[in-house]
Amino acid sequence: MNEIKPYETVPSFEFVAGPARIYHSPDGLHQVVIADSQAAQWDQLKHFHELDKKRFAPDAVPPRADNIWPEDVFAAIKNLPNPELVTQVVLQNYWLADPGSAGVAPASFDLPKAAAQAFSTGRIVFSFGLSRNLLENTLLLAWTRLLWFKYEVLTHFFRYAAFLERHGYFIDQTAGKTDVENWAVHLVGGLLLADEDKFASFIAQAPLRAVILASALQRTLDESSKDEASDEASSKKHTNLEKRLQVVTEQTLLQAQEKLLCMVKQTFPASDSDDDHAFRLLLLLGTEPQLASLPIKVANLANEPHTNAVLAKLGAIKTLMELNLSQTLISREGTGFLADLTNLQKLDLSDTKVMSSSLTPLRALSSLEELNLSGTQINESALPSLRHLNGLKKLNIEDTALVASKDALQELLPNCQLIAGG
Questions:
Q1: Counting CB atoms within 10 angstroms of each CB, which of 330, 344, 377, 381 has the fewest?
Q2: How far is CA 106 from the centre of its chain?
Q3: What is the CATH number of the domain that holds 411?
Q4: Residue bearing the bigger pLDDT, 372 or 37
Q5: Please, which pLDDT band fits residue 416 given cuts at 50, 70 and 90?
């Protein structure tokens, strides 16, 4: 291992009692923070261990102290699937009665066996001392929570998956306490460190969660600039993980899709949150042919973080009559699929990035009766598209630049109730 850079001493540091040392990794990407008084004791232990190596034969050297040293932490960070998520690890700290008062709101993790707290900044704080043999697994568990912070869209849909599988499989009781513990515990115990039997049980009994978690792992592996594992053990671990992700992609995804299809077909039109969650998750994970088989007339996706590519699948559901896309991520280039929804009667695009040019596909919607464009970026250049909507009975253009042309718009659509505010 390359030698770590010289440490710097600071008079105080969050979560550390008294002065602290800040050690820097050889590549400068990570920091380890430790109480100066504790580090001084460890320096002595390291000194004595080096003396022992000189005094004894190689096979008779007494084992080193079981404390965690900075170089141990840097080595453990390097072994993570994506080390770049970790910016700082704080060791041997005391936990403040009100950590939020220090200016950093900690994540609330109620997992007894977790000895570390994770923060969206990439900081991991060990809430009590650990022995070396527990370091890697504890750090890995905290790392999975960093994924929770990083991939907000995936965690959004993981909540749906966890809700739909709330009466199903859990590795242990702690995983059922909160969504984030469900995420962390199953990432580690179901995918990363699970033996073959536990892995098989997890993907068979919790396919929805397994697919979302595998997506998060695959994404972070793709984004990591980590060099390929050089030692045999790390290389074997990486290869095994890739095989598991492939199994989830090729087999478990199909199981998840079938499960969601069954749920949606049995319950639509939606009558409770189970139905809504299932449809929104199926839109993310399913295919256009699968969605085309659904007898859905009403779809409410307001505030959902589906991308343009995912929303485009809605074009396969020809039976749709009402569609709410308010406050979604649909953008100027993402409205093309609307031309395929020729039975649409109500459409809500309010508070989105839709522009005048986005309305061209709407010309094909001869059945459209109600359209909400409030809070969008349309202006008078939307008039040529809107004039084709002769069947409109209600049109909302509040908080848009088109309000300035409301009189001209009313002339084009004399039988339409125009809502322009003011």
A1: 381
A2: 18
A3: 3.80.10.10
A4: 372
A5: very high
Q: How many CB atoms lie within 10 A of CB 100?
A: 9
The mean pLDDT value for 202-231 works out to 88
Residue 369 has pLDDT above 90, yes or no: yes
Burial class of residue 19 (count of CB atoms within 10 Å of its CB; 0-12, 13-18, 19+): middle
Domain that holds residue 208: 151-260
**Does 272 map to a domain?**
no
Distance between CA atoms of 344 and 299, rounded to whole angstroms?
11
Q: Are 43 and 73 in a shared domain?
A: yes
Rounded distance between C-alpha atoms, residue 222 and residue 4, angstroms = 27
182 and 312 in a common domain:
no
Phi and psi at 330, nearest 5°, equal: -60, 135
**pTM of the predicted model, to two decimals?**
0.87
Instruction: Specify whether 165 is located in the same domain as 129.
Output: no
Q: What is the pLDDT of residues 217-239, one digit of tens each?
A: 999 999 987 665 556 666 777 88
CB-CB neighbours of 181 under 10 Å: 22
Please report whether residue 274 resides in a domain.
no
